[in-house]
Amino acid sequence: MYLTPQHILIAGATGLTGEHLLDRLLNEPTVSRVLAPTRRPLAEHPHLENPVGDPAVFLPQLSGRVDIAFCCLGTTIKQAGSETAFRAVDLDMVVAFSKRAREMGARHLLVVSAIGADPKSSVFYNRVKGEMEQALMAQDWPQLTIARPSVLLGERIEPRLGEQFAGPLSRLLPGKYRGIEACQLARALWRLALEEQDGVRIVESDELRKLGK
Fold first, then answer.
1. Whose CB has fewer CB within 10 Å in the chain, the N or C terminal residue?
2. 103 CB contacts (<8 Å, ≥6 apart)?
3. Which sequence ranges are marked TM in the entry (predicted)?
């Protein structure tokens, strides 16, 4: 069964995956409104609403009907500056955004997590991603889709050294460990958004690649 989303809320629209997803959303004839809060302004579009500033300030002020929410927020410990700052973005901000999206009426949340996400992992990055997934499941969404991509491939405005090093190698890995193009992930997220089913669905990177072809 498929539904036709009309009003979309997206976080992380200036990131690698978020940019591709935003472009797709703004060019979908079924989408009449995209609400995309960001820290820096986006290019204007007749279907785009773009509050600019500190998310902690404007998040509670977001209003209007929302059908589906996409969360593409994510950083690295190096970019954030510390483990505490990383957790504030990849856990706290994601949870706060999702809570607000639910309050605005969204029934389906699609979130970009990461391969290896596990709240019991000894790896800090994977542990935080796992804790984030658990927190979203506790919000009791009618429909929650968790995407777990492997290494993201594509040109970032601010390159990540880890991805630059791991990217070429990841193309040689098998199954879900092979790297995935950000544009593929964006296409997969949109296809998943159109599918209506109850409960939680976790989609690993190999399936995301197939959906994004």
1. N
2. none
3. none
**Amino acid making up residue 182:** A
In DSSP notation, 114-179 reads -TT--TT-SSHHHHHHHHHHHHHHTT--SEEEEEE-SSEES--SS--HHHHHHHHHHTTS-GGGS-
- Residue pair 129/95 in contact (Cβ under 8 Å)? The answer is no
pLDDT in tens, 173-187: 556 778 899 999 999
Which helix H or strand E contains 7, and what residues bound it? strand 7-11
- Domain 7-211: give its CATH code: 3.40.50.720
Residues 93-106 pLDDT 10s: 999 999 999 999 99
What global pTM score does this model have? 0.89
- Domain residue limits, the chain: 7-211
Residue 57 is predicted with a pLDDT of 85
DSSP secondary structure string for all residues of 62-107 = --S--SEEEE-----HHHHSSHHHHHIIIIIIHHHHHHHHHHTT--
